[in-house]
Design brief:
Length: 216
């Protein structure tokens, strides 16, 4: 099996090249990738795996928290949120509002992450009630509870507003609690994608298998 290759002053080739030697007998492996190499943006444990095999393995291990982000003005942060949700193995990402979103920031991770669309906040709230999941808003609003000291439920929906306007009034009304991220500088808020990453990591710090998260 070949590793990362470099040629002169060129950028290194990411991933693994064609399989060297006798091919392993594993139904999870993709013959095309074994033959031509695997340059996908996946961790090494999934090299040469079929796409559907990767998704099935992720599905068996997904965490019980969901992530939702409002998309009323085609928020460019959604791709970043999807990528982070994939990294922290969220159950699903929910996009509320406009169905279309910019996938560039997702770096193809949307192929491995379940994404559900809700046309309205009311639709998201109804789904969450049916699933027995509390809705937790993330925004620095008057009356918000500090994220750093809040006991996050294992199963929940973390909801983020879009850049510049934050959470809509509709989300604030259905949220069990709204949490604020501690800030110390001059800006009134942080990037929505960064806020989502901080909140998801807070969930992992409370409920995740930390050792497993560092295995790669």
């Amino acid at each position: 099996m070949s590793g990362t290759a470099e040629t002169g002053d060129q950028e290194p080739l990411r991933g693994l090249g064609p399989w060297e030697g006798v091919w392993p007998e594993d139904p999870r492996l993709d013959p095309e990738l074994l033959a031509h190499g695997d340059r996908r943006n996946v961790v090494d444990r999934y090299r040469y795996w079929r796409h559907e095999a990767i998704v099935a393995d992720l599905d068996a291990r997904r965490h019980p928290f969901h992530v939702a982000i409002e998309n009323w003005q085609h928020d460019l942060n959604i791709g970043s949120v999807v990528r982070t949700a994939n990294a922290f193995l969220a159950r699903e990402v929910h996009i509320v509002g406009n169905r279309r979103w910019n996938r560039r920031g997702a770096m193809v991770t949307d192929r491995y992450q379940h994404i559900r669309h809700h046309p309205t906040v009311e639709d998201l709230a109804g789904w969450a009630v049916a699933e027995g999941l509390p809705v937790i808003g993330i925004d620095n609003l008057p009356g918000s509870v500090p994220l750093e000291t809040y006991a996050l439920p294992r199963a929940c929906v973390l909801v983020f507003g879009q850049e510049s306007v934050g959470l809509s009034d509709a989300v604030r009304e259905v949220a069990t609690d709204t949490l604020a991220i501690a800030q110390y500088g001059s800006t009134r808020s942080i990037n929505a994608g960064a806020a989502a990453a901080i909140a998801m990591h807070a969930w992992v710090a409370q409920h995740g298998d930390i050792a497993a998260g560092h295995e790669g």
